[in-house]
Amino acid sequence: MPLLKNISTLYVCPDDGDQSDVHPVHDAVISWKDGIIEWVGPKSEFPGREDDYDVLNAGGRIVIPGLVDCHTHLAFGGWRPDEFEMRVQGKSYLEISRSGGGILSTVRETRSIHENELYEKTAGLLDKINRSGTTTIECKSGYGLSLKDEIKTLRVYDRLRYNKTAHIISTFLGAHTIPPEFQDNRKSYISLLTDDIIPRVGEEKLAKFCDVFVEESAFTVDEARHILEAGKRYGLQPKVHADQLTSCGGAELAAETGAISADHLEKVSDLGIKKMADAGVIAVTLPFASLYTQESFLDCRKLMDGGVRVAVATDFNPGSAPCYDMPLAMMLACNQSRLTPAQALKGATIYGAKAIGMENSTGSLEKGKSADFLVIDAPSVNFWMYQFAPDRKMEVFLKGECIQS
Ligand code: NIG
Ligand code: FE
C-alpha cells in the first residue's frame, strides 16, 4: 500500500465551510489502496506503521486535490487561429459568428471527420490535459448538431472513459447553436433535439447533463426551458451557458429548472444571483473565455457575497478558450475575478466536482475518495498562484498512479 509522507501542507478542500476554507494540514501524510484514499491527516496522528507501506517522499512540497475542469468542449475538428487574429484586430466574437465563423466553422470541421480521427485527436489532448493537473473533466458535445454527429462526439467520450484513467463526465450540448441547414427553420431543429436526439442520448446513457447556450446568437430563454425540460424527461440534468455576452435571463432560468450549474455569467443580473443562491446553483467562472473574447471578467466576489459557490474551469474549445491549463485559469480568476488563491483552489476542486455531480468520489482529499492529487513544488497555494511558473515541477497522481513526475 502506498504512503506519501513529508508533505509540508496538504489542502483537504472539503465541501463544508465557506469558499475560503481549504482545510490545510501541516506535516501531513496520505495513504491509499487500489486507487482509493485510506487515510489523510497529520503525520503525528497516522495510525499505521511506515514499514507496512511503500513509502514515497513529497520532499516538503504541498499536496492539493487533482483539479476538476467542470466545463470543456473537448472533442472538435480543426482549430480557429484566424478568428483569434480577427478578434485581436477588433472584430467581436458575435460579429465573427454572424458571418459564418465561430461555432459553425468548427461544426463543419467536426462533421467532416470520422469518429476514429476525432477520438485520436481528443485522446491526445486528454493526455496533455491530465499531465497538466486535471484529473476529472466534463466534456460537452455541441459541434455535431445532427443526430449522427452528436452521437459520434458522445461516443468518443465513452471510448475515452473506457480506455483512459481520467474521470470523464459527458454533457449533451446539441443546443449550442442552430446548424446551417435549419437557419430558416429553428423550430424544426428544436424539435429534432427534443423529439429525436435527446431521447436517443438519454436512452443510450450517452450523457449525464443537458446544456443550452442561452444567448442572442443561440437560444432564447423559452427555447432553452423547453429543451432542458425534454432533457429532464430522459434523465439529463440541466446546465446552462448563461449571460455570457448579454444579460438575458440565463441565471434565472438555471435556478428555475434546477440546473446543477450556470456557467460564464459575466453579464448576470442581481436577481439572477439571488435566484441562484436560493436554488443552490453553482456558478462556473471561465476566465479564458473572457480573456479571449476581450470581454470583462466575472466579479466572483459579488457572487460569493450573494451566497453562491463559484467553480473555476477552462471552457476549453477552439474558439473562445483554446487553452486547457487549469492552474492558469485559477491564476486569472484570482487576478481578474477577485478570488483569493484558497477560493480559486476550492473552485477548481470540490466546487468543480459539485458542478458535475462528482463530489462523492473526487474533488477533495478525504477517505474513500479517488486518490487524485498533485504534489507541487511551492511553499503554499498562495505562492503557487502568485508566482505563476509554467515550468514549476508538479507530480500528478490519478487513481493512485503517478501519471506525471
Ligand atoms: O463556452 N459560449 C458558447 N460556446 C463556447 C464557445 C464555443 C466556440 O467558440 O466554439 C463557449 O465559450
Ligand atoms: Fe462553454
Kindly describe this structure:
- With 405 residues, the chain is α/β, with parallel strands linked by helices.
- Helices cover 37% and strands 22% of the residues.
- The chain has 15 helices and 16 strands.
- The protein has helices at 81-88, 93-98, 103-112, 115-131, 147-163, 186-203, 221-233, 250-257, 270-279, 287-292, 300-305, 326-337, 341-347, 350-354, 381-386; strands at 2-11, 24-33, 36-42, 54-57, 62-65, 67-69, 134-140, 167-175, 209-213, 237-242, 261-264, 282-285, 310-312, 373-376, 394-398, 401-404.
- The chain has an eight-stranded parallel sheet. Strands 3-2-1-4 form a four-stranded mixed sheet, with no helix packed on it. A four-stranded antiparallel sheet has the order 5-14-15-16, with no helix packed on it.
- Strand 10 (237-242), helix 8 (250-257) and strand 11 (261-264) form a beta-alpha-beta unit.
- Helix 4 (115-131) crosses helix 5 (147-163), helix 8 (250-257) runs parallel beside helix 9 (270-279) and helix 12 packs across helix 13 (341-347).
- The longest helix has 18 residues, at 186-203.
- The protein is globular and about 70 Å long.
- The two termini are 19 Å apart.
- The mean pLDDT is 97.
- The chain binds N-(iminomethyl)-L-glutamic acid and fe (iii) ion.
- Residues 71, 73, 241, 315 line the site of fe (iii) ion.
